[in-house]
Amino acid sequence: MTNHVIAPRATASRELAPGAIRPRGWLERQLRLQATGLTGHLEEIWPDVGGDSGWLGGDGESWERGPYYLDGLVPLAYVLDDDGLKARAQRWIEWMIGSQDSTGFFGPTANRDWWPRMIALKALTAYSDATGDDRVERLLQRYFRYQLDELPRRPLASWAASRGADNALSVWWLHARTGEDWLLKLVDLLASQTLDWETNLGGEVITGKARVFSHFTHGPNVAMGLKAGAVAMLRDGDESHRARTERGIAELDRWHGQVHGWFSGDEWLGGPDASAGIETCQVVEMMFTTEVHSRVFRGGVYGDRLESLAYNLLAASCDPWMRSHQYHQQPNQVQVSVARRAWSFAGDDSNIFGLEPNFGCCTANLHQGWPKFVRSLWTVDTDDALRVVAYAPAEVSASIRGVGVMLSVDTEYPFEDTVVIRVGVDEEVDMPLRLRIPAWCTDAELEIDGHVQSIETVDGYHTVDRVWHGGEVISLRLPIRPRVVRRAGQAVGVRAGAVQLVLDIPENWVEVVGAPGLGEWEIHPRKSWNYALDTAGSDDWTVALSAPATVPFQAEAPPMTLTVPGAQAREWRLAGAEAAPPPPSPVFDLGAMTTVRLVPYGCARIRISEFPVTGVNLGGA
User: Fold this and answer.
1) Vertex 89 angle, CA 394 and 303, to 5°
2) Cβ contacts of 47 within 8 Å, gap of 6 or more
3) DSSP-derived secondary structure for 255-266
């Protein structure tokens, strides 16, 4: 088993190899849907990653799409231990390794951009972690020598200059194996040619919707750039990088933060409105950045954020069967259609579920989301502590202090409030185990073998430090209670645990006949969506939880529901193809009081996430 990332002045937690963490339960079903859906069929239905791809030696697309696809295909194949997917990935791997010339350069000669090779390096290193294939290490040795010689003459530019931190991560991967000092020179050279994200995000974030292109306002770029501080900390060990990164995240939330807790980007930073969109590329890249944050900065907040992304935005980015995806999703999304929307920069088809709405970057890039999430569920800290980053049903295998450790994580989380961890060891081992206590949970309960344990939280974690003999059963209860999130104009959102709750709007799916790929759909509401909530009694609200269905994120069988009082806000209407901004609250022009049902964001492809509040308890009609 391969663990890494090691730096000379700061040491990150060690990432487990793809396949060391196996998804189980609803999470495995979700990844199987991906394997039989878009990821498993993309080469057959999309020429950009078909046999003519420049990354397979053909004369087709030779830039980022082949590497993007492989960056998700490799971890998916190995976390599922799927021989068919492994064979599919191997064809790409063999061509990439065989393409390297005497200078160290590799990949299609038709395109010599640094950027797509940064993605290819991520896929190659993941493959090596999973298989132990030392040809990857040799390829990186030669390629990084080439970069060290070539970058002074041909520096990073455009997308590569925005995303140089991704290149540096692969240099650190090789340094962990060789310890060669010349690699640190390359780390420094890459940093000198990469955009200064810490300064820009720390105080120069634009304060409204972007109107012109800039790499600093491109949503996926911002998501990738947020890892720059963590990568810099690997070099200098300066803890202040975490504070600067957090300041950047706070600035993005201040000016562009939406009700679900993430900044808009459609495809540029789009402001905080509930109708602003988020690109699927931004979702999966923000997940990868958050996974890096968790290994380098280590705080529990990064697991909170990772769960928020996976269980809400990632789940909603594809249809329930993962046959298609959106380019942009909206928190308040009352129809999915080809229509003009107020995007910062995107086409009219950006909102539909299909093969390649608007632009194909997301078609190629979406595949990394779920499998890298699985790989990142647990990590190994520098004191040999196994640390949970995110809770989900899984089995974990690791070598700790030379002893094989196996964890079986049984739960329906985030749709259940109890996580049961069964510990197995090859022989007794003295090992810390770090359990994340989410920031939203104020009354966690912990038992080990039926004995109640006190909880002491440091930076979001409780550490159980003891000798493990095998057979121990840990039960962690994280009570899930609804909480109201305040928004501008006295609007509100509702969350329960890691899940954003939204209005349950019955959906009418309309298939586009003759569409490419596995299908294309518009979705229209079958009932009114313009409801205001009465939040006066929210302290007494109780969520209903159930096991996820065979298809976990489908509207027909939501695993979490909440019934709350509300009424139609008669003045709230469509603005073109979008819901108008929620009317100022409290709202008095109301229909009859009734109850409305809220369901998980990830189960609803049309939804209201940000609501006005009724005035019924303030003397209104």
Assistant:
1) 35
2) 60, 61
3) HHB-TTS-B-BS
Considering only CA atoms, which of 258, 373, 265 is closest in space to residue 327? 265
The burial class, CB within 10 Å (0-12 / 13-18 / 19+), for 551 is: middle
Residues 589/607, Cβ–Cβ less than 8 Å: no
pTM, 2 dp: 0.97
**Count H helices, E strands: the chain?**
18, 25
Structure confidence by residue, pLDDT tens digits, 576-621 = 999 999 999 999 999 999 999 999 999 999 999 999 999 976 543 3
Helices 135-150 and 182-193: crossing angle in degrees, nearest 10, is 60
Query: How many whole angstroms separate alpha carbon 383 and alpha carbon 298?
Result: 13
437-446 pLDDT per residue, tens? 999 999 999 9
- DSSP reduced 3-state for 183: helix
Chain centre distance of CA 39 = 17
Q: How far apart are CA 72 and CA 81, in angstroms?
A: 14
CA nearest neighbour of 207 among 246, 263, 158: 263
Using the 8-state DSSP alphabet, how is residue 305 labeled?
Answer: H
Q: Are 234 and 7 within 8 A, CB to CB?
A: yes
Q: Are 372 and 287 in contact (CB under 8 A)?
A: yes
- Torsion sign over Cα 521, 522, 527, 530: positive
